[in-house]
Amino acid sequence: MHVPTLEEVAQTAGVSRSTASRAINGGSRVSPEAQTAVDDAIARLGYIPNRAARSLVTRRTNSIALVVPEPDERVLSDPFFAATLRGMNASLKDTDLQLVLLIDKPGETSGRIGRYLRNGHVDGAIVVSHHRKDDLESVIDVSRLPAVFVGRPFKVFPGLRFVDVDNFGGGVIATQHLIARGRRNIAHIAGPSDMTAGEDRQAGWRHALAQQGLPEGPLAGGDFTTAAGIEAMEAILAEDPTVDGVFAASDLMAVGAMRVLAKHGRSVPDDVAVVGYDDLGVAEGAIPALTTVRNPVVRMARHATDELLTTLGVFSADDLSEPPHDVTSTMAEDGHTVLAPELVERSST
């Protein structure tokens, strides 16, 4: 007895395989006409979905991993990760795929998580917040697992794909904004040096100052958290209390810096102007409201997930959402997409 296949349903309905799959699984990104055509084809052919049988044949797990090499307290408290999940869910809501969250401490990922990825527990992965010593690029390369990085990896092998924002450009426009406000002794609270975002934003700060012939102000590092911003700002004021501008590599660090400035009687923005980075809700609610560089995390995560689902055959190229309008560099052949940063001006400058 012949058992109808999904391909036959799609052919009979006159739609793509991915559209037929979404119609069968209740996806919302299906036109009423396509849904009716697929329903009619199912009735005519007697097609019965069998996920278990299909998994045995295709060796698919019907799941993808979000890999976050960070401790759980950071994942639960940083708005970056909530934004990442929102972006991924926007793509996954039209599929029957499950999301597996893999959290670990930096440096341990290539062990436990690496084994998990290599052993076929998921069909693909989205990797965020990766650090140099995690070496997740090599794990992905050896495992041959379809994956997309959110954020530029340190190692870019042929076939390795990523979606990022222009962090160097973001550092430039943040610093240029402070210079345009008349600030001449501009400090930087840098992100982790073992993350490309931290390196690139710091490089943008240096470049903007050099362009204007200004000396580099005090520099202190942090891990993108409020506590790190507090510690860094204390160190900066101890080194040079005449600082009149601060570019912090995250909004959380900028908020910590403003708390320290207030404690020391320094008015923001009258005495010290402050710019952050991310614009994921923290900046707008800060006191004063924080000028920042928008990091389009939701859109990056959605774009990365769409790319992964296309690779897995869940989406076709025609099914993808509209590409971001502010792409500064798109190399489809190499799988690299870089979005343009945007300055959001508020009261802190």
From TrEMBL:
Coiled coil: none
Keyword presence, Transcription regulation: yes
Domain of life of the organism encoding this protein: Bacteria
Example of a GO MF term: transcription cis-regulatory region binding
Chain positions covered by the region annotation Disordered: 1-31
SUPFAM superfamilies, per database record: lambda repressor-like DNA-binding domains, Periplasmic binding protein-like I
Keyword set, alphabetical order: DNA-binding, Transcription, Transcription regulation
Stretches with biased composition (Polar residues): 13-22
Keyword DNA-binding found: yes
Descriptive protein name: LacI family transcriptional regulator
